[in-house]
Amino acid sequence: MSAPAVPQRLAAPAPGWTDTVDVVVIGSGVAGLTAALKARELGSVLVVTKDVVASGSTQWAQGGVAAALDPEDSPEEHLQDTLVAGAGLSDPEAVHVLVTEGPDAVRDLIELGARFDTLADGEISLGREGGHHRNRIAHAGGDATGAEIERALVAAVRRSPDIRIIEHALVLDLLTADDGAVAGVTLHVMGEGQLDGVGAIRSRVVILASGGLGQLYAATTNPSVSTGDGMALALRAGAKVRDLEFVQFHPTVLWLGKGARGQQPLVSEAVRGEGAFLVDHLGNRFMQGQHELADLAPRDIVAKAIMRQMLATGKDHVYLDARHFGDEKWRVRFPTILASCRSHGIDPVRELIPVAPACHYSSGGVWTDLNGQTSVPGLYACGEVACTGVHGANRLASNSLLEGLVFARRIAAHLAAGLPVLREPASDRRHPGLVDADAVPELQRAMTVGAGVIRSANGLTEAGATIGKLVEQPAGEPGTPGWEATNLVTVASALIAAATVREESRGSHWREDHPDRDDLHWSGNLDLTLSASGALAVPEATFVPHESEENHRHG
Q1: How far apart are the first and last CA of the chain?
Q2: Cα–Cα distance between 474 and 31 in angstroms, integer?
Q3: Confidence class of residue 131 from pLDDT cuts 50, 70 and 90?
């Protein structure tokens, strides 16, 4: 099937300046900074980030990082939990890489200076989250793990004089050579320092670590910078994107009222891991009988159960009950969430916490192999922007920070065999385009209604029609708002196209008109590319089948 044509490249002024480095890293979260720290041994490194270096999604990660660090745990058990959560679409080989290399990656992070919470004997304190059958979640500051990891990585990068950083810069498009391989990037620096305006960075390698697509939806846990820039750039460069239909909605996001928009406060799954439970407006628990782990079931199951409960009761939220924690446990274990709730007039020590699902994480993204290589020579990807094969149809809680660590390290290890030659950028003959920045609220509304937690052919068709009209609206002058809007429209079109094709319910993709999982027809990954005309094409029958998690468990 096809979706409305989107711009083949971003309309922007010609570059007014040029620079050259060996490796460009786009993004400054756990994946990007880990990649930069490892790649500096191979050549000159430039990190480009949209805001200040510590502004990405990593700092908002509350729960922790999952790894088999307990002597009673094992990588094999972590692998099994990950495959089950992935609902048959995780790549067992990629998951094996994650769980076997994960513990050493976490230990390296500790050596770098990250301070995880410990027990009285000095061992790392390990918690549990949804989908895990063992305590394997290392956390810091109670519920501030991402902030601590980001702090340690930023400090290490700032101690490295051989890593340059450009803040307040949006990467626009990939520069490619005549053969389609990477030759660098174009970017816009937003009035900071000497490199103002649009410029070009020539490089041997580009590593995408630009995060997710949360701003596609009206409510998300993602920061405002998460506008799908890396996925859109990769599509325009001809890269293959995989499984974009699998968007994880975190089940317990603080409900702030019907009019709330943008980034919403997360109530970590770790709260349920410590014994909190979900109830409806009458105080009745509803997760028992839904899954063997009840309130700690994988996120897609919990989010669907909440949505069903909301639909059945006509309410727009449910509640999380953690009143039995008491004041001390809230202050010690979840100080960030406690402060967030109280800042919005809710005291979780004495009151139920109103929660509802919101867009949280993209399990799909730019396809990579086990070394982080995309289908474009010289372009690598890691972190949420990538589809490494780990998450399948639904990410297991706290695997995202680990994935960023492990696959960023693997990219650097692969590049250690030798960086590609510096290529000459070819003349870019792609048709430029721009979407009106004012289109974003309408896009978010259409995506939330038609391509949110609950989907159907009719809803997806209506969302796609809205997106098509937004593409056709005349745009204003090029600038960051318009470029972000164009990226959002590009990724939205791709997501809708993929979600329309997959006529089943699996993991975080829930089709009410196809409510069952269908392994006979849909047990494989769905790839998508952008044609030279700007048309998005989803091949309907070119699936890459994986053995199911049941076969892997019992095989």
Answers
A1: 36
A2: 36
A3: confident
- 407-426: average pLDDT: 97
Please give the average per-residue pLDDT across 533-553, as a whole number: 51
C-alpha–C-alpha distance, residues 163 and 23, integer Å: 10
Q: Name residues whose C-beta falls within 8 Å of residue 290's C-beta, 6 or more positions apart in sequence.
A: 297, 301, 302, 305
As a whole number, mean pLDDT of residues 13-39 equals: 96
Give burial (CB, 10 Å; 0-12/13-18/19+) of 209.
buried
Angle made by CA atoms 295, 301, 307, in degrees to the nearest 5: 95
The answer to whether residue 281 scores a pLDDT higher than 90 is yes
Query: Per-residue pLDDT for 419 more than 60?
Result: yes
- Distance (Å, whole) CA 298 – CA 290: 11
Query: Where does the pLDDT of residue 545 fall: very low under 50, low under 70, confident under 90, or very high at 90 and above?
Result: low
Nearest to 196 by CA among 173, 172, 168, 174: 168
DSSP 118: B
CA 23 vs. chain centroid, Å, equals: 22
Give me the sign of the Cα torsion angle 339, 345, 348, 349. positive
Confidence label for 546 from pLDDT (cuts 50, 70 and 90) = low
Which residues are tagged catalytic?
Answer: 299
Q: CA 513, CA 500: separation in Å to the nearest integer?
A: 11
pLDDT recorded at residue 548: 43
| Cα angle 263, 267, 270; round to 5 | 140
Structure tokens at 424: 């000459």
For residues 273 and 137, the answer to whether their CB atoms sit within 8 Å is yes
Of 341, 356, 334, nearest in space to 260 by CA: 356
Q: Is the pLDDT reported for residue 223 higher than 60?
A: yes
**Cα–Cα distance measured from residue 552 to residue 555, given in angstroms and rounded to the nearest whole number:** 5
Rg of the chain in Å (alpha carbons): 22
Q: Among candidates 25, 28, 31, which has minimal Cα distance to 405?
A: 31
- What are the two backbone dihedrals, phi and then psi, of residue 316, each rounded to the nearest 5 degrees? -105, 15
Q: Do residues 81 and 137 lie in contact, with contact meaning Cβ atoms separated by under 8 Å?
A: no
pLDDT of residue 538: 58
Look at strands 247-254 and 262-263 and give their pairing: unpaired
Residue 207 contacts residue 233 (beta carbons within 8 Å): no
CA 320 distance to own-chain centroid = 25
Q: Which two structure tokens, joined as six digits, stand for 229? A: 């820039």
> Which residue from 393, 436, 437, 396 is spatially nearest to 546, judged by alpha carbons?
393
- The dihedrals phi and psi of 504, each to the nearest 5 degrees, come to -160, 170
Largest CA distance in the chain: 66
pLDDT at residue 539 is higher than 60: no
Helix (H, G, I), strand (E, B) or coil at 286: coil
- The whole-angstrom separation of Cα 383 and Cα 290 is 31
Pairing relationship of beta strands 432-433 and 527-530 according to DSSP bridges? unpaired
Q: Closest Cα to residue 274, out of 332, 327, 325, 350? A: 325
Q: How is residue 173 written in tokens?
A: 């498009």
Q: Angle at CA 143, nearest 5°, toward 365 and 111?
A: 80
Q: Is the dihedral of CA 79, 84, 86, 92 positive or negative?
A: positive
- Tell me the H-state helices in 356-479: 399-415, 440-450, 457-472
